[in-house]
Amino acid sequence: MTEKGLSDSGCRAAELRYEWQSFLGLLPVLDLRPAEPVLYQRCLTAVWLSRKSGISRTDLHQAAGLGFQAEAVDFDLLLAQLVREEILEPIISSPFHFQIRRRNWTNPESAYAADDRLSLSAISREEQTARFRMLGLLDARILNPRLPEKRVQQIRKERDELERIYEATWLELENAIGSQAADAIRKNVEETREAGAVQLELPLGKKTTFDLEGEARCNQ
Question: Is 98 strand, coil or helix?
Fold first, then answer.
């Protein structure tokens, strides 16, 4: 790099540091009016979708779909709002780099955008456990050879409808809290239910054996 290039680079770095110090100094006193709703929503979603612990102004600008627009004062005001709301925290030593603070929240673009993540997870677990249990009961009734075919068809229709609701709910939850967290809840729901079914069957099997042996001894 030429001497002029080094000089220009140094000037840009100095300007960025000055801009950053000004941003940090004005944070407590800025009069933040509500940001443009669509832009604010895009930025919230970009932060939520980030798999990293931090994000820069440039990265957030691009993730929000503004890559072809110059970073402007309005965007810095939006950054200041996210800092005020404790979603981002400035990394003092790195100009316009922020740590992502709020993790216990749902996807801003999901159907559960206003819900608390932990409460949503708990409610979904409870509801899906009940649905999964009912699906098992309906499967058992379908296999009952004593039921007339017309009734079996009706039960199968009810089961298919419930299964659609069951699967759609998992998709909505995944969109709200992320696939990894939703998959963990689903695995817990379905494995717990299957383990419970096995535990219920074992005592019955032992009891049946005991009764038959007792009956045999009585007949001797």
Answer: strand
Whole-angstrom distance, CA of residue 77 vs CA of residue 83 = 10
Give dist(CA 153, CA 128) in Å, integer: 24
CA angle 68, 21, 37 (to 5 degrees): 40
Asked if 27 contacts 80 with a C-beta cutoff of 8 angstroms, the reply is: yes
CA dihedral 30, 36, 38, 42 (to 10 degrees): -20
Distance CA(108)–CA(48), nearest Å, equals: 8
pLDDT (0 to 100) of residue 24:
93
Closest CA to 189 of 118, 133, 115, 120: 133
User: Higher confidence at residue 115 or residue 11?
Assistant: 11
Q: Let me know: does 126 contact 143? Beta carbons within 8 Å.
A: no
Q: What is the pTM of this model?
A: 0.55
